[in-house]
Amino acid sequence: MLEGTNRTQNGWVKAESRKKRGKVWVGYWNSYVELDGSRKKRRKEKVIGLCSKITKGEAEKELRDAVIPAFENRSPVSHIPDAALTFEKAALKYLALSEPRWSKSFGRTMKSIIKLRIIPGLGKGWDQFNREYDRFPSDIKPTEVLTWLNSVAADSSRSLVKKCVTHVRAIFDLCVDDGVIIKNPARAKSVKPARGRDADQTFLDVGQIRSLLTSAAHHSRRDYLIVRVLLVCALRPSELFALRVNDVQSGTLTIDEAVVLGEIGDTKTTESHNPVPLPPTLRMELLAFIESEGISGEPREFLFPSEVGTVMSHDNYLDRKLKRFAVDAGIPRLNFQMMRRTTATHFQNFGQVKDTQGLLRHKDAATTLNNYQKVITANLEKAASAWDDSLLVEERKPKK
Questions:
Q1: What is residue 6's predicted lDDT score, i.e. its pLDDT?
Q2: How far apart are CA 286 and CA 245, in angstroms?
Q3: Could you give the C-alpha distances from 41 to 11, 38, 294, in angstroms and in order?
Q4: What pLDDT score was predicted for residue 372?
Q5: Exposed site from 40, 122, 228, 272, fewest CB < 10 Å?
Q6: pLDDT in tens, 333-377
Q7: Angle, helix 104-113 to helix 158-177, in steps of 10 degrees
Q8: C-alpha distances in Å from residue 303, one per residue of 23, 44, 169, 336
Q9: Which ranges constitute the DSSP H helices of 125-157?
Q10: How far is CA 33 from CA 4, 7, 10, 205, 216, in A?
């Protein structure tokens, strides 16, 4: 079968609405093939670009000079892609265009993923002299995208793999829309990466919690209170180390700030900007600690500052302190999210789902249930026994 016998057509374009992209210019042309000794016509189409970015005339020129030649095995006539646009520049351009639509928290996450994973993984190469160089979007093949995504999946969560797939495809889509490349290599049928590992579901049992508190108390009163506040109030580390002295109120702990990239900023979400209950015993311990530290006269001073009085780095605290306490307590591994999951799980013994949602300050109770509150085996077994007992007829019930 021979394709491309029609070499002179220009095709035509139409404005159409596409679900994911909005209104776009779609190019159409006829391709002729020799099949069983006769000439057959086949209709082909290709999205040229967004109607908001290019005119119909520009779309027609793109179709005539680049798209049709590429599909009909001809060299482009006048289409000259932006030779200066490397993959890194395209990724940073995508980040700049997308960031205004994202929340601050999600924007921080995506900036980290794009700059620390996607750009080094796909946008950089090494020559024969072991020198790094910038790669261009047109140089990156579908097999390379798949290989890189599989390497991410090998040691990352399913959530991170999904984010990488979504945003790598979006970066290449931007290149297609700008006419830098014809096809998106990340949307090829062969690009189906591994799923990545399942999200961590572990939480501490009551014995482990008490051992962790004991280990922290042996180190210092301050560390004991940090661990206690994390567990009782279910705080994120970014919220914990942004606490001020005057956030300790009667009955509540004010949460109105968070540590963002080493600086004080807004909380993760609007719902996060809410007080949490502060039990009387914990409040009295915090007030005694404030007085003993001599900071009661400075209401805006950090409650748990670094050694030089600045905001504490939660990554440093995790590595230098919290993990050490966990080892001493016989806990194989520990992080802040596991502690928050621990509180959410055990709190079901003391309150309803809505109560747990309020403590964790989630917008949706589904987030609390699906990601944080796990099954307590002892409770499940007790409930199953009660259910079984309710089904027994009177004469079958065991005699006491």
A1: 41
A2: 9
A3: 13, 10, 86
A4: 85
A5: 40
A6: 899 999 999 999 999 999 899 999 999 999 888 888 888 888 888
A7: 80
A8: 53, 66, 44, 18
A9: 142-154
A10: 7, 12, 17, 69, 76
Do residues 238 and 260 make contact, with C-beta atoms less than 8 angstroms apart? yes
- Give the position of tokens 């119909």: 56
42: DSSP letter:
E
Q: Provide CB contacts within 8 A for 87, sequence distance 6+.
A: 119, 122, 123, 134, 135, 136, 137, 140, 171
pLDDT tens-digit map of 378-388: 888 888 888 87
CB 25 within 8 A of CB 54: yes
The identity of residue 26, as a single letter, is V
The pLDDT of residue 91 is 95
Gap between the Cα atoms of 64 and 80, Å rounded? 13
Residue bearing tokens 């180190």: 219
Terminal-to-terminal C-alpha distance of the chain: 85
Q: How many residues does the chain have?
A: 400
Task: Evaluate if residue 143 carries a pLDDT over 90.
Answer: yes
Model confidence pLDDT, tens digit, residues 65-88: 777 766 665 444 433 445 578 999
Residues in CB range of 281: below 8 A, 6 or more apart: none
The predicted-structure confidence for 44-60, as pLDDT tens digits, reads as follows: 888 888 888 888 888 88
Q: Which two tokens stand for residue 295?
A: 């900071």
Dihedral, CA of residue 246, residue 249, residue 254 and residue 257, to nearest 10: 10
Please determine, for residue 134, whether its predicted confidence score (pLDDT) is greater than 80. yes
Q: With b meaning 16 or more CB within 10 Å and e meaning fewer, what string describes 139-150?
A: ebebebbbebbe
Distance between CA atoms of residues 49 and 259, nearest Å: 40
Residue 372's contacts (CB-CB under 8 Å, 6 or more residues apart) are 340, 341, 344, 345, 356, 360, 362
State pLDDT tens for residues 12-33. 889 988 776 788 888 888 876 6
Q: Where are the beta strands (DSSP E) in the chain?
A: 2-3, 12-18, 22-35, 38-50, 124-126, 132-134, 252-253, 258-260, 263-265, 276-277
| DSSP string for 260-324 | ETTEEE--SSTTTSS-EE--HHHHHHHHHHHHHTT-TT-TTSBSS--TTSSPPPHHHHIIIIIHH
